[in-house]
Amino acid sequence: MPAETIPARLFEQANIRPHAPAYHVRVAGDWKPTNYADYAAQTRACGKALMALGMEPGSTTCILGFNRPEWCVMDIATMAVGCVPAGIYTTCSSEEVAYIVGHTEAQIVLVENASQLAKVQERWSNLPDLRYAVLMEGAGPVDDERVLTWEA
Hints:
- Helix content is about 40%, strand content about 20%.
- It has five helices and seven strands, in the order H-E-E-H-E-H-E-H-E-H-E-E.
- Helix 1 (about 5-15) packs across helix 2, helix 2 (about 35-50) packs across helix 3 (about 70-80) and helix 4 (about 95-105) crosses helix 5.
- It starts with 5 loop residues before the first helix and ends with a strand.
């Protein structure tokens, strides 16, 4: 019998009800739905990106940002590829962020914006396992080869 996991349940819903809304995002005052098929596709694409960046089962990612689709996609994609996600409160200081990223031995951290990225960059030299930071959608590019955009 297959394991009951969060990723398995998402992919099952994508098969059962692909066109049903999975979540809504407020865009310019209106709520825009994303269906289960698209949510599952986003999660698979993120999982493939994590593997392409060298994540192996048992590795860890961290997520530093408010609740938005990228947060959930990264969380579920991390689990789907056999890795472990760890959330970080946006109110944490750079010292607290570094403690969590370092303690979890995270190789990738997803950050919401430049101000959250700054907390990571301030202490990056003390985080030997951290290879990449990924900015959530719309945060814009940063001139640092270790920092990737969500779109990339």
